[in-house]
Design goal:
By secondary structure, this protein is mainly α. The protein contains 3 helices and no strands. It is rod-shaped.
């Protein structure tokens, strides 16, 4: 019994559509997407590997950048928490300084009035 040539063609067409659908879900620009789809259709695995590797490298770089940003944010929060008492004391000293300056000016005016 011979196989019908239409069935493998349908399977191939479905496989190509499935590959394209998977590729469309990836965060890749349109040129790379078209190139990857073309390479899958031609079964040029060596070039497809290069395209995939560049995508993986970009994702890895993005992941590293995100991790660094999260680390900086965590450090910033921790420093802010640790410096809160120091900042509070500094604010108190600034207020005390303003009050002493005000009193000093008032005493100077009183001394000028007497003399």
């Amino acid at each position: 019994m011979k196989k019908s040539p239409a069935i493998p063609a349908v399977k191939t067409a479905l496989a190509v559509r499935a590959r394209k659908a998977v590729l469309e879900q990836l965060p890749v620009d349109q040129k790379k997407l078209k190139l990857a789809a073309a390479l899958l259709e031609k079964k040029n695995l060596k070039r497809l590997g290069v395209v995939a590797a560049s995508g993986v490298a970009a994702l890895s770089l993005g992941s590293s950048m995100l991790q660094a940003r999260l680390t900086r944010a965590a450090l910033r929060r921790e420093l802010k928490r640790q410096l809160a008492p120091v900042n509070k004391k500094l604010d108190e000293l600034e207020e005390q300084n303003k009050e002493l300056r005000r009193q000093n000016e008032e005493l100077r005016r009183q001394l000028k009035g007497r003399g």
